[in-house]
């Protein structure tokens, strides 16, 4: 997890706006299989959206659990969608590094 400034969060929120949620959390809650799926997807995309179809009252707790288990950063929860960011390991794969430095 990295600490983001408010400007960096705004930049990532803006970047995530046109994206569709790549992972849906349903009636089974957050399973180990979904954690693995989130880890795989965030490794490729760096910035992802996760939609909560169920557990809408518990989405903050579930989002924090996802953040810890995937070692990502929760950017923001908007409605029933959480935005997560995890910087790519290789510098060449980092899509948002320049924007985050400017923010």
From TrEMBL:
Sorted alphabetically, which keywords does the UniProt record give?
RNA-binding
Report domain CRM positions.
2-97
Question: What GO molecular functions are on record for this protein?
Answer: RNA binding
Give the superkingdom in one word.
Bacteria
Please identify the protein, giving its name as recorded.
Answer: RNA-binding protein
């Amino acid at each position: 997890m990295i600490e983001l400034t408010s400007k960096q969060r705004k930049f990532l929120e803006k970047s995530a706006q046109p994206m569709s949620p790549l992972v849906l959390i349903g009636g089974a809650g957050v399973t180990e299989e979904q954690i693995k799926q989130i880890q795989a997807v965030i490794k490729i995309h760096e910035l992802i959206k996760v939609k909560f179809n169920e557990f809408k009252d518990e989405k903050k707790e579930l989002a924090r659990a996802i953040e810890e288990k995937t070692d990502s950063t929760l950017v923001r929860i908007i409605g029933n969608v959480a935005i997560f960011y995890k910087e790519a390991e290789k510098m060449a794969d980092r899509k948002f590094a320049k924007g985050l430095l400017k923010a």
